[in-house]
Amino acid sequence: MSEIEAERIRVLADRPANEKGTYVLYLLQQANRSSFNPALEYAIAEANRLGLPIVACFGLLDGSDGFPEANERHYAFLLQGLSDAAAGLAKRRIGFVMRKCSPAEIAIDLAKHAAILVLDRGYLAIQKRWYEEILKAVSTRVVQVEGDVVVPLETASDHHEFAARTLRPKIGKRLDEFLQPLAAVKPKHDAAALGLKSQLDISDPDKVLAGMTLDRSVPPVKRFRGGETEARRRLKAFLAGPFADYGEVRGKPEAGAASHMSPYLHFGQISPVEIALVVRAAAKGGEDDKSAYVEEVVVRRELAMNHVFYTDGYDAYDRAIPEWARKALAEHAKDERPQLYSDDELVEGRTHDRYWNAAMAEMRETGFMHNHLRMYWGKKILEWSRSPKEGFERTLRINNRFFLDGRDPNSFTNVGWVYGLHDRPWGRRKVFGTVRYQGDNTLKKFDADAYVRTVEKLCAAERQE
């Protein structure tokens, strides 16, 4: 088992540990899991060194201060995961405090009595603001440990990458160095003696959800349940079944060959390092299958992290989309659109395209859509919108509303790709200019009718009492 790589660890406030501190505090924010969590293991090791117990905390945004664009679907999955994580922490004799407030607020308050504050790391603007707020307010030592990527972000690249092909060799050089097992550190001191109380009893996530003030227009789904336990169960089932032919069928939505790890990765309920290690060691699947999967979970995913981290305004059309693509789309902005649909028509799947409607139904009803269809889905919204900017904004809006893994670096990057991000100019055509187009030929690469039937069954299962 390996130690935590030094490049994952960043000292944000280089101060001595608070000698009056009665525990080491870990802000459970991005990595919502009790195991294979570098930040947590670092915090445990520091607590053992100082002869202190460890306390993990979580701030639950609620009401008007809720996480932007999050709704009941997202919160249900999050709370299920936190319930699982809290149980895992308790087994390890780690305290857990959860309150209705921002992550920064709970960290600042509990850090008053902490010897050291340990943070994990996310890359979105709101997460950066939390870290800045914490650093301005706390007086103890603050250390951040990166556990949401395989190769630490700045280690992989110090600038915004043009495409996967420019990032891939940089990650490849360091991949084996960071793709290592993580030793589980046993806490030497039980946090129960501290007597800290949590404002919320997360052992009943449904009760916590019912007590929240939030957008309930998008209900929870039955297809996915949150938590690290469920994430590992799904991964095991995937590797024992459809993964055997992954390289061949991964582009066929009807084949059911997806691992469905993206929601769990989004909420930090499983480590990308753990996934890649398990995939590499899988009994089934050839080297091509394993390489194809690792490409997706490492290179493609970390390209998205690179994009949002190095792009101010990654959610804005004028700042997220490269100049060449905006110019190409602007030159054809007045082209006649074959169809124009309202937001309601799109969300309800009332277009002329039954295959697009099926993809929208899968997203709307189950919170998921196969990657192959996500691209087709997005390109059609561009084609059916009055302007490229309107298309970008509504694509991102619908994406973030219904996908369980919406509001994620991958979401912002995937929507950007529809409009030319991380791509190159193609043959010129109406509406798209030289931005890549996807049409009916995309549907010929798999059994589209079988996919429609699959979606009908999935949606029927969601409607069952």
Automatic annotation (TrEMBL):
<keyword id="KW-0238">DNA-binding</keyword>
<dbReference type="GO" id="GO:0003677">
    <property type="term" value="F:DNA binding"/>
</dbReference>
<feature type="domain" description="Photolyase/cryptochrome alpha/beta">
    <location>
        <begin position="22"/>
        <end position="153"/>
    </location>
</feature>
<dbReference type="GO" id="GO:0000719">
    <property type="term" value="P:photoreactive repair"/>
</dbReference>
<dbReference type="InterPro" id="IPR052219">
    <property type="entry name" value="Photolyase_Class-2"/>
</dbReference>
<keyword id="KW-0227">DNA damage</keyword>
<keyword id="KW-0274">FAD</keyword>
<dbReference type="Pfam" id="PF00875">
    <property type="entry name" value="DNA_photolyase"/>
</dbReference>
<dbReference type="InterPro" id="IPR006050">
    <property type="entry name" value="DNA_photolyase_N"/>
</dbReference>
<comment type="similarity">
    <text>Belongs to the DNA photolyase class-2 family.</text>
</comment>
<dbReference type="InterPro" id="IPR036155">
    <property type="entry name" value="Crypto/Photolyase_N_sf"/>
</dbReference>
<keyword id="KW-0456">Lyase</keyword>
<keyword id="KW-0285">Flavoprotein</keyword>
<protein>
    <recommendedName>
        <fullName>Deoxyribodipyrimidine photo-lyase</fullName>
        <ecNumber>4.1.99.3</ecNumber>
    </recommendedName>
</protein>
<keyword id="KW-0234">DNA repair</keyword>
<dbReference type="InterPro" id="IPR014729">
    <property type="entry name" value="Rossmann-like_a/b/a_fold"/>
</dbReference>
<dbReference type="GO" id="GO:0003904">
    <property type="term" value="F:deoxyribodipyrimidine photo-lyase activity"/>
</dbReference>
<dbReference type="InterPro" id="IPR036134">
    <property type="entry name" value="Crypto/Photolyase_FAD-like_sf"/>
</dbReference>
